[in-house]
Amino acid sequence: MILFDVNVLIYAHREDQSDHTYYRDRLEGHLQEPKPFGITPLVAAGFLRITTHSKFPNGPTPLPHALAVLESILDLPNAYWVGPGPRHWELLSEIIRTTQSQGKAVADARHAAIAMEQAGIWATRDRDFQRFTSLGLRLEIWEP
Fold first, then answer.
1. Among residues 3, 14, 6, which one has the least CA distance to residue 125?
2. Cα four-point dihedral sign 80, 2, 111, 87
3. DSSP class of 130
4. In sequence order, which ranges of the chain are alpha helices (DSSP H)?
5. What is the phi-psi region of residue 35: left when phi exceeds 0, alpha when psi lies from -120 to 50, beta otherwise?
6. Which of 7, 67, 71, 121 is the most exposed, fewest CB within 10 Å of its CB?
7. Exposure of 16 by Cβ count < 10 A (0-12 exposed, 13-18 middle, 19+ buried)?
């Protein structure tokens, strides 16, 4: 199962972002396939937090519109909420210790731990996630 990072959703949603068309087309391609995909509550909340922020470049996405974007994705029959499982803390703490993750990297480690526990593929434009591949994270870097 592929799991999408918040940056993929933002760039696919916001027409004013660089490479919007690439991210929109690639995301829509996955959403239209019958294969399952996952969204974590962290990613959904992050999407809302970032896109509706008053200082978002070129203005925020109105909250009703941002919610509708997420709901349209999550209403698809191949969409799944994916969250931490019973091994989450074990995996997360090991990832953090091994990679010496601190600050922003802790949030990335949490996403990586969820993807690893669920045997998912993490799709992102953020190359910082490469630090976790040696620990078992399956990763797709999306870039035009």
1. 6
2. positive
3. G
4. 6-13, 20-32, 41-51, 63-74, 88-99, 104-117
5. beta
6. 71
7. exposed
d(Cα 137, Cα 123) in Å, to the nearest integer?
A: 11
pLDDT tens, position by position, 31-67: 999 999 999 999 999 999 999 999 999 999 999 999 9
Domain boundaries, the chain: 2-81, 88-141
How far is 61 from 8, CA to CA, in rounded Å? 16
Maximum CA extent, the chain: 41
Contacts of the segment 18-21: beta carbons below 8 A, 24+ positions apart:
19/143, 19/144
